[in-house]
Amino acid sequence: MLEVIRNNVLQKADISDDIDDDRLKSLIDDAIVEYSKSVYIPICTMETLRRRIFASIRGLDILEELLEDDDITEIMVNGNNNIYIEKAGQLIKSDKCFSSPDKINDVIQQIAASTNKRINERTPISDTSLIDGSRVNIVLSPISIDSPVITIRKFGSGRLTMDKLHKLGSLDTKAIKLLECLVKSKYNIFVCGGTGSGKTTFLNALSEFIPKDERIITIEDSPELNIDICNLVRLETRQPNTEGQGSVTISDLIRTSLRMRPDRIIVGEVRGCEAIEMLQAMNTGHDGSLSTGHGNSVPDMLSRLETMVLMGLDIPLNAIRAMIASSIDIIIHLGRLHDKSRKVLEITEVLGANENGYQLNTICSLKTNAESSSLVYTGNMIISTGKLESHNLLQQCTNVLKGDFTDDATF
Hints:
Elements: H1 2-12, H2 21-36, H3 43-57, H4 63-68, E1 72-78, E2 83-87, E3 90-93, H5 101-114, E4 125-129, E5 135-139, E6 149-153, H6 162-167, H7 173-184, E7 189-193, H8 199-206, E8 216-220, E9 232-236, H9 250-257, E10 264-267, H10 274-282, E11 290-294, H11 298-310, H12 317-327, E12 330-336, E13 342-354, E14 357-368, E15 373-377, H13 386-390, H14 394-402
Parallel strand pairs: 7-11, 7-12, 8-9, 8-10, 10-11
Antiparallel strand pairs: 1-2, 1-6, 2-3, 4-5, 5-6, 12-13, 13-14, 14-15
Helix pairs in contact: 1-2, 1-3, 2-3, 7-14, 9-10, 11-12
């Protein structure tokens, strides 16, 4: 029934013309009424048909309904009739399916075109985003052997603040007050964790502590950060054109951002030799910079950063470690527990490095048992206090770590 009505709409309207949404909806309504003269259609079914036909012509077909469901956090399309969703941390097979393999290809091209991305046989892999900020990864056949694959990571309809993360149990008030002091004192902070641990969400929440009068430059592969700052410049990488020219990498953007008078630089994620430029920016007067990376622990993340630097520089390991230790002040490690909740697992200060590795000062780490989990503080104070002192926040930070603060205290 849906396909019959949809085809009738397409016959009556030249979709290549720039007809507006109201006109298209009117044509759909007329076609549904016409069809209902021969076949009874309940009112509720009419509304569903109207929405689905409009989505199939102008929107992202069946994905529209899944995207509108705020309880869904991830959508995984493994072909036209094999779709999975994540709800409350659980993977569920959806009863939705595309009408044909051609339809899923149409949706893929529509997603790519909306952000001026290119995906075809020559460029079968693409990272992009939807209008609402949801992150999208697409892989075409034959790279994806059985069928095209679309993976959509939704970030929710509302921004997750530190207060909301606290209510969700991701971290406690003491950690929030500590991070507020560190961000406002312009410590360079690196957020690490595994896939789906909430690194981008946490980076967004951290940014609420940045003073509103600062100039911020964000650098990303695809726009995911949601920074509430007026003086904000957002930069995005670009793929090479069909001749292999015109690419703009994260390294390019970090270098050019240094000439844009930033107070802070926020790099969405580092995966390769762009780590060199990020570390150099942190170490050459751009304090307060933030970034994220994939790492299963703090030592693992430091080791991965060493590998990233070695991709672009042939220098001794001790020199690389010294560069990392002098650039990054704080590492926050995030993770997902067995109950699928996202938590801060560790907050550690990076003090220095030598031939034996890094000197670390663990401030707190998550302890779990069968019933609960909570951050346990080591009793250590922040040792590198120069930035706290220069921003007159050393005493406040010390009081926080001693537990001498009120929940409504701001710094």
